[in-house]
Amino acid sequence: MIKFQMPNLGADMEAGTLVEWRKQPGEFLNRGDIIADVETQKGLIEIEVFEEGTLETLLVKEGEKVPVGTVLALINDGKAEVKVSEIPSGETQKPEVHPIEDVEGKPGRKSDKGERIKISPLARKIAEANRVDISLLKGTGPEGSIVKEDVEKAISEGKKPIQETEKETDETKEILAKPALPAFDAIRMAVAAAMSKSNREIPHYYLEKRMDMSKAMDWVKEANKERPVQKRLLPVAFLIKAVAKALDEVPDLNATWENGLQRKNEINIGFVVSLRSGGIVVPAILQADSKTVDEIMETINDIIPRARAFKLRSSELSQSTFTITSIGEGGADKVFGLIYPPQVGIVGFGEISEQPFAEDGMLGIRPVVDVTLAADHRATDGLIGSRFLAALNKHLQNPEQL
Amino acid sequence: MSGMIKITYREAIKQAIREAMQKDDRVFLMGEDVGNYGGAFAVSKGLLKEFGPDRIMDVPLSESGFTGAGIGAALAGMRPIVEVMTVNFSLLAMDQIFNNAATLLHMSGGQLNVPIVIRMGCGIGRQLAAQHSHSWEPFFAHVPGLIVLSAGTHEDARGMLLSALQSPDPVIIFEYTAMLNLESEIPADSEAVGITKAKVRREGKDISLITYGAGVYKCLEAAVALAEVGIDAEVIDMRVLRPMDEETFLASVGKTHRALVVEEAWKSVSISSEVVSRIMEKAFFDLDAPVERLCGAEVPIPYPKHLEDASVPQVMDIVDKVKKMLRS
Fold it and tell me: Rounded to 5 degrees, what angle do the CA atoms A256, A261, A264 make?
């Protein structure tokens, strides 16, 4: 019998609310199946199982909030249980798919179905900033349009229009159990907790190296010529791949510090995603070292929208072994990260910009990126960090070998 | 400070011409009947006696000819003020203004600038009928190379000319025939006014009335009436129609979130069209209601008084329109 526990989805998580069981006792679970939805500060997370077996007993009810580590269910790993394996697999497969589709269908807003809502551009801007559901407002402006005053009134009356919409729908109960997107405050508090812990416990050391990106950028440009628009690569995919390869050479940084240095077998790269409403989440690109640059790009394209919609899976939130933060275009030149505990390093990419760059006694203008590494001095020393940056630079100068 | 004086719009223009001629002997006035007759609208009455026939110059009835002569004088180092009796007659001088004055700096590779000032009476006079009553500011505002000013207040009627004569490039000043007898108080000390920025003539928070020329006093009067019913209107006098100062009215719309553009020129392809476009392009998300316009009716200006009045926006039209925009 396997005890299935409330997983820890990051250093900042203490408890989670079991929102919905996706599987019922008697169903057979395959490795990777989604067994339940859990609400954390970071949103609604789909929880996967990593064992195979038959779901035996559910120990926690939907809607209950329990600490990390609480046993949620018992899974019979079924080696001895001949009965279970006799159940035709076709039957057990079906119910897996439907609940997932349902979940996505439910939050449909009234405004999506009905007529186009007349609202002034200013009122729309204010409504969006304050997350007011405009489909519930009554306009008093020209042609019955919603104007600034109407939105401000709704805000001052403290309506929670988004929830009210949900009450009107048929599947009331199920949806009420489903929290809306997590409040900004919750995200902010989660970031605050993790970063305070990091700053309090981890003695960081910092290294920085300027890297020539001309070969890498040329490679990306050439590569993109052969790709349709949807498959075009961004430099960041390339950088992630290069980091993964460098970690392969310097495994001490692909680790956690938990009663000593614990090297990790997989290289799962956490990638900092800024949320439009403020705050960050860090989904992982699993086994980035064995993915091609194209596969990494595909993963990014898939994971960023899901991260912003709070639809990540548990493995993506909990299994990263190293973190990248990248400023992107038009941003700061350098970024010095704070390590996400219990990891031991974070690499920061500033904006890729053209700069004077000297090499072999010649000065030229080249795209360069300032790369920083923040690492845990308990786990490694500067020499290791420096080796990592050198390895990373080597990969950036040999793009075709990635 | 020497306080305020009460003068007519006509007198304000005359003072400006006199002062400009006193300050700079390169300045001279040329135009139809500006000398012996004292100007078709009596603006230059008495100036011939004061400055003599070399500097107050009557010209033949040929707008193209004398405007061209003025451009030539400007090229030769003079500072001519060319008076075109009304904008309606300037159509005869379009080639000189658009093809010569506006382009010579460009055509000469920057060698020949044309420091001419062309003044024109504009808009409705007093039952002068279609051929003497039109508002053609939009024509001129369309042309790169010109600076186009609209003197909607006494302050500008007196101040704009002095600043325009400082400009190295051709300046068109529109003066408003209907306002010649209108009295207003302005500071006794004349001072040059800026000719690059619009002005907020009245501050308010509920709606921006964006206007120029004959619309300025009308909007100010409407704003007073609106204040009585609790509507706080801001009045923007555009003043500079080219190059258009959009900053001022965009900032105003950013504050009030509503705008009504008022002009006497025909609505289609007008100054107001341009203002509305720029608001759409640059202040869309500040808008709480569609931008609206009150413009001249698209007919040749009629002769009968009641129809003439009906053909351009009046104070009550502005008041009614604003009430509708805010109370619907």
Answer: 50
ipTM: 0.71
- CA-wise closest residue to A7 among A83, A51, A69, A60: A69
Least confident piece of the model among A39-48, B24-33, B146-155, B228-237: A39-48
The residue among B209, B217, B210, B150 whose CA lies nearest residue B179 is B217
The pLDDT tens digits for A335-353 are: 999 999 899 999 999 999 9
Least confident interval from A113-127, A331-345, B162-176: A113-127
Q: pLDDT band at A400, cuts 50/70/90?
A: confident
Active site residue B247: no
Asked whether the beta carbons of residue A122 and residue B285 sit closer than 8 angstroms, the reply is yes
Chain A residue numbers with beta carbons less than 8 Å from the beta carbon of B288 are 120-123, 141, 147-148
Q: If you search the block for the tokens 């500008």, which residue do you land on?
A: B156
Shortest Cα distance from B279 to chain A (angstroms)? 12
Would residue B142 show up in a list of annotated catalytic residues for this protein? Answer: no
Tokens matching residue B229: 């019913």
CA of A141 vs chain B CAs: smallest distance (Å): 6
Alpha-carbon gap: B204 to the closest alpha carbon of chain A (Å): 18
Residues of B whose CB is below 8 A from A120 = 257, 287-289
Helices (H), A159-209: 161-168, 172-177, 184-201
Q: Which residue of B has its CA nearest to A144?
A: B328
The conformation of residue A388, written as its DSSP 8-state character, comes to: H
| Residue among B83, B132, B155, B308 flagged as catalytic | B132
- Residues facing B235 on adjacent strands: B202, B209
Pairing state of beta strands B183-187 and B4-8? antiparallel
Task: Tell me the three state secondary structure of residue A36.
Answer: strand
CA distances from A278 to A14, A34, A125, A129, A374 (A): 22, 28, 17, 12, 23
Give me the residue label for tokens 């409403």. A277
Of B285, B325, B328, the CB nearest to A125: B285
